[in-house]
Every structure is written in structure tokens, then in C-alpha cells.
């Protein structure tokens, strides 16, 4: 939120929280920092009941899963996730807000937990460490790879590798759809961490893992909304129709799948990932906060026929007394609605991809241009999505650059239209980009019109259920 607004009040509150957490960490004197005692990690490492400490230092369910968890009951407290969330928040304070103290705190936490993990491996075996990861550990690998890009400390790289969970990523590496029985929001962050591993190390295997993962989730484990999971877990491939209940599409999973698709689009510029992002954002993010009650979020999005958000076990929460994981991701989602609208193409010739149609202004510093996007509000009677893109240039003689504008896969050519300064442009087919390379000047105006069609989509495993 601060990155978008640079609000002074937010800046003051952020700094105050970092300072308070620094005092807590300094009082402990070990580098440890969390909302619960370090003894929780003793229980975690001993495979004793405690709910996911690493998840909350970046959640677990009473269930027996595949051999990946050695049939261990998943009843550990989420201390791991809390750790990950604290570390990621502090790292963001450094990378986004420039708080140097926050970086030192993250490094101290990483060093502390590197010691704990090393001790587990030395006292037991590496397998004991892998077994302890059969709980929600959040994106520990992700945040540690990010930390390594800043510190270049090999210890942080090694620690990140130790949270990569090979029994899960290994299945994806051999392109096996074995998601059935895995807890969805435990493992999507592991894939995101694998994506960061690819960016840090250049190992193409982890790019292939993420690509295959996205393919199988979309083809065999997703609803028309773009959401995934049944009672927080993945079911058998293309067996969704039999599991349409109130306990479908955990909100946190959509939050994390948007991260997966964002990385894939950055790497490939494939429009399918941009289409997915739009689908999941509209259906799985904008729908999780009750419109007239800001701060009231929902855990699950019921997909069963005739099911209600209000009448379900994981229905609407409250503004001040609900502290589910989906409140954390939900609040973050609504603080960054401007994310993933524009993607800049680096290189000698400036290029910009516009992949989401959301009213916004983008200061394109590399090109010396400002792009202002306006979208006509839609009603049920509208036949077209109408978008206006206005350009202003810092230089009096303009700037040569390329705009790549997404033509959504859901539209049709019948009635589609694009004009630049009142001159018609030839449109490519839906599911491609309209590419315009020119010397852009202040006052340039691009108008887009996309037909909106009513259509149905059958669920993956039932032709007559839409």
C-alpha cells in the first residue's frame, strides 16, 4: 500500500512496527523473532503437535497424505508460516521502503534458523528435516532466495535449498500429476520458491517445474473461477464435479496462484497467463471481501449449486475478530490491486505490456512517458468493454517505444475495434497482443472496444455441469 501511495502516516506506522520488533529481537539476544516461544520449534523438529511455526515465521490439517509426509498426521501448529510472514514483511520493509534496520533483522533470523536446521540434520538425518516440512512452511524458500539476492551469502542460498521440499517438487520435475491429497496452500508457495530459485540460479528445471504445475492445475484442478482446492486439498485430476460444496476454492490459494502466473508471464509473455490472472483476480480476489462491509473477508468460495457464502462453515468472517490466514492474504490483495497491470520489457528499445484493464496511471520512466488508462464501468446491459489509453511525453519531440496491449481470449472479432488518434487499427485475433511501435507524443490516444459475450464453461469432468 505504501509503495503505491507513499502515504506519510503509513510510513510512520511501518517504521514504528519495525522498531518495536527490533526491540523484541534484541531482548531475545539470539536472532529469534516471533509471536510465540522458540520451544514451538523444539516440538516441530521433534515431529510433535504444534501448528506450523515456519508458516507464521513466512497451517496444517489433521489428515494423512501421500508418502511425501510418511503418513504423518498433519497436526502441527503453523509457527513456520508466521516466521515466513515476519521475514517477508521485514524484507519488504528493506527492499520497498528502504529500512536498513529491517534487513539486519531478517539476516539475524535467517542465521538463527540456519543453526536450527543444521542441528536437526546433524542430530538426526536430512530425512528428519524433510519430514518436518510436511506441514505448512509458507514460502520459506522464496524469502530466503530473495534474501540471498541481497546478501550474496552462500549460507542463505543453502538454507533456501533446504526448504525446497524435494518429495513434492521432484514429482513435478518428472511431470507427474500427483497433486491429489496434497494440501494446496502448503505447496503452492513451495512452487513460488522454486520459481525464485530459477531466477537466482538460472536452473531451467525449476522453470519447467512451475510451467508444468500451472498447466496441471489449470487443466485438471481448477474451477471456472480460476480457483482451486476442495476442503483445502487437491482431489484427483478432473474429479471436481463430485466435490462441489461450500468448502471449495480457499482464498489463500488464489492469492498464491496469482504469484505463480505473474512469474510465468514475466518469463514467457504468454497471454494465457495474463488471461488466467484476470480470471482469478476478478472471481477469486474481488469477491472475497463483502462490498458493504470493508474488512469482512471469506475463507472459502462455495462452488456447489445453490450454495451461499453466508451459510457455510468457512463463510464470512468479522471485521475485527477473525484472524484466518485468508484475512492476511485478503488484506494484502486489496492493498495491491495495481499489481500486474503493466509489465516493462527491458532492453535498448522501451516496450510495455498492458495486460489488465484497470483504471490507473503508469509513470513509464524508461520511456519518458506517462500512460493513463480509463475503463468505462460495466453494467449487465453493456455489449462492450471500452478502454481508453492516453499518452503524455516528457520530451517535446516524444519518445519511440512499443506498446503491447492484450486482446483477451474471451472476446470476439465481431465488433472489436481499436483506434489510435481516431484512425482504425488492424486487430489481431483474441488471445494475442496488439503491438504498436511508434514515436509517442503527448496527446496520443488509443481507444479499445472488446465485445463481451455470454458463454458457459463445463467443469473439467462433467460435460453437462457448467
Describe the structure.
The protein has 15 helices and ten strands. The protein is an alpha+beta fold. The protein has three domains: about 1-165, no CATH class; about 205-340, no CATH class; about 340-450, Immunoglobulin-like (Sandwich). The strands form two sheets. It has a six-stranded antiparallel β-sheet, with no helix packed on it. A four-stranded mixed β-sheet has the order 1-2-6-9, with no helix packed on it. A hairpin with an 8-residue loop joins strand 4 (about 370-375) and strand 5. It is globular and about 70 Å long.
Search tags:
466 residues, alpha+beta, Immunoglobulin-like, 3 domains, six-stranded antiparallel β-sheet, four-stranded mixed β-sheet, 15 helices, 13% strand, Beta-AFase-like_GH127_cat, Beta-AFase-like_GH127_middle, 6-hairpin_glycosidase_sf
How many helix segments? 15
N- and C-termini, Cα separation: 37 Å
Beta-strand proportion: 5-15%
- Structural class from helices and strands? alpha+beta
Helix share bin = 40-55%
Based on CA inertia axes, which overall geometry fits?
globular
Q: C-alpha Rg, in Å? A: 23 Å
H-E string: HHHHHHHHHHHHHHHEEEEEEEEEE
> In total, how many domains does the architecture comprise?
3
- The average pLDDT score comes to 90
Number of strands: 10
Which stretches are poorly predicted, pLDDT < 50 over at least 5 residues?
59-67, 69-77
Q: Please identify the oligomeric state.
A: single chain
**Main sheet summary:** 6 strands, antiparallel
- Main sheet: which strands, in order across? 3-4-5-10-7-8
Amino acid at each position: 500500500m505504501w509503495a503505491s501511495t507513499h502515504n506519510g502516516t503509513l510510513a510512520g506506522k511501518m517504521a514504528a512496527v519495525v522498531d518495536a520488533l527490533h526491540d523484541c529481537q534484541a531482548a531475545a539476544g539470539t536472532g529469534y523473532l516471533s509471536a510465540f516461544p522458540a520451544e514451538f520449534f523444539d516440538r516441530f523438529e521433534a515431529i510433535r503437535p504444534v501448528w506450523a511455526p515456519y508458516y507464521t515465521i513466512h497451517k496444517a490439517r489433521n489428515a494423512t497424505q501421500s508418502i511425501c509426509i510418511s503418513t504423518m498426521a498433519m497436526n502441527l501448529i503453523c509457527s513456520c508460516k508466521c516466521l515466513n510472514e515476519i521475514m517477508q514483511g521485514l524484507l519488504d520493509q528493506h527492499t520497498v521502503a528502504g529500512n536498513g534496520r529491517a534487513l539486519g533483522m531478517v539476516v539475524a533470523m535467517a542465521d538463527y534458523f540456519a543453526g536450527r536446521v543444521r542441528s536437526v540434520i546433524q542430530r538426526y538425518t536430512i530425512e528428519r528435516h524433510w519430514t518436518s516440512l510436511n506441514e505448512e512452511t509458507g514460502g520459506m524458500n522464496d524469502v530466503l532466495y530473495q534474501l540471498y539476492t541481497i546478501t550474496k551469502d552462500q549460507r542463505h542460498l543453502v538454507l533456501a535449498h533446504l526448504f525446497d521440499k524435494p518429495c513434492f517438487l521432484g514429482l513435478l520435475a518428472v511431470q507427474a500429476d500427483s497433486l491429489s491429497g496434497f494440501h494446496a496452500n502448503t505447496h503452492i508457495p513451495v512452487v513460488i520458491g522454486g520459481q525464485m530459485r530459477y531466477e537466482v540460479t538460472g536452473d531451467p528445471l525449476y522453470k519447467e517445474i512451475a510451467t508444468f504445475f500451472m498447466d496441471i492445475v489449470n487443466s485438471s484442478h481448477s474451477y471456472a473461477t480460476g480457483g482451486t482446492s476442495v476442503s483445502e486439498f487437491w482431489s484427483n485430476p478432473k474429479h471436481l464435479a463430485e466435490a462441489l460444496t461450500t468448502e471449495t476454492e480457499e482464498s489463500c490459494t488464489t492469492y498464491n496462484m496469482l504469484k505463480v502466473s505473474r512469474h510465468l508471464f514475466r518469463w514467457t509473455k504468454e497471454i494465457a497467463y495474463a488471461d488466467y490472472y484476470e480470471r482469478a483476480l476478478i472471481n477469486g480476489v474481488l469477491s472475497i471481501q463483502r462490498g458493504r462491509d470493508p474488512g469482512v473477508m471469506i475463507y472459502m468460495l462455495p462452488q456447489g449449486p445453490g450454495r451461499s457464502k453466508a451459510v457455510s462453515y468457512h463463510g464470512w468472517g468479522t471485521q475485527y475478530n477473525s484472524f484466518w490466514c485468508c484475512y492476511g492474504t485478503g488484506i494484502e490483495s486489496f492493498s495491491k490491486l495495481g499489481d500486474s497491470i503493466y509489465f516493462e520489457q527491458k532492453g535498448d528499445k522501451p516496450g510495455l505490456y498492458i495486460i489488465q484493464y484497470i483504471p490507473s496511471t503508469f509513470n513509464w520512466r524508461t520511456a519518458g512517458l506517462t500512460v493513463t488508462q480509463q475503463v468505462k464501468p460495466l453494467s449487465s446491459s453493456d455489449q462492450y468493454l471500452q478502454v481508453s489509453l492516453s499518452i503524455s511525453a516528457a520530451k517535446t519531440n516524444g519518445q519511440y517505444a512499443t506498446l503491447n496491449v492484450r486482446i483477451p481470449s474471451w472476446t470476439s472479432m465481431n465488433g472489436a475495434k481499436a483506434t489510435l488518434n481516431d484512425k482504425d487499427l488492424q486487430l489481431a485475433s483474441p488471445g494475442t497482443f496488439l503491438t504498436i511501435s511508434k514515436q509517442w507524443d503527448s496527446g496520443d490516444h488509443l481507444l479499445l472496444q472488446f465485445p463481451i459475450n455470454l458463454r458457459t464453461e463445463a467443469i473439467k469432468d462433467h460435460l453437462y455441469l457448467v
